[in-house]
Amino acid sequence: MSVIDIDVGMQHLRAEAEDQSLVQRYLDAAEDSTMQYLQRRFYVDNAALEQAVLEGTAGRDPMLITPSILAACLLILGHFYDNRIDVFSESGRTDLPTGSRSLLAPFRVALGV
To answer: Which residues pair with 64 in a beta bridge?
Structure first.
């Protein structure tokens, strides 16, 4: 289940009702992509975060979703929805839109060497 309500995603995309199942798949992928980039999971509220901690599924450094993370997820959702094929730049494949990366950078952990 998504952290972000499908109605928020639908409104962001101005999508038609018949696209809801497609939008839900892209929303799930946008959230998953964001969590992978951050190397941490985020949750809609304290109850969901606490439940994940109790179940042992919260991972390293779990957090509540912030307005910046929400905005980044919506940018990624829009990218997935508008570009239903892989996107390449002059320097190579672009995995996340630049705007979303700048919104997410302060929340990343374990950046490596």
So the answer is: 43
- Helix locations, 14-94, DSSP H: 20-38, 46-55, 67-82
79 neighbors 60 (Cβ within 8 angstroms): no
78: nearest Cα among 57, 56, 62, 100: 100
Question: Between β-strands 92-93 and 88-89, what pairing exists: parallel, antiparallel or unpaired?
Answer: antiparallel
User: Which residue in the block uniquely carries the two structure tokens 């809801």?
Assistant: 20
Nearest Cα to Cα of residue 38 among 58, 54, 16, 62: 62
Q: Dump pLDDT digits (tens) for 17-60.
A: 999 999 999 999 999 999 999 999 999 999 999 999 999 999 99
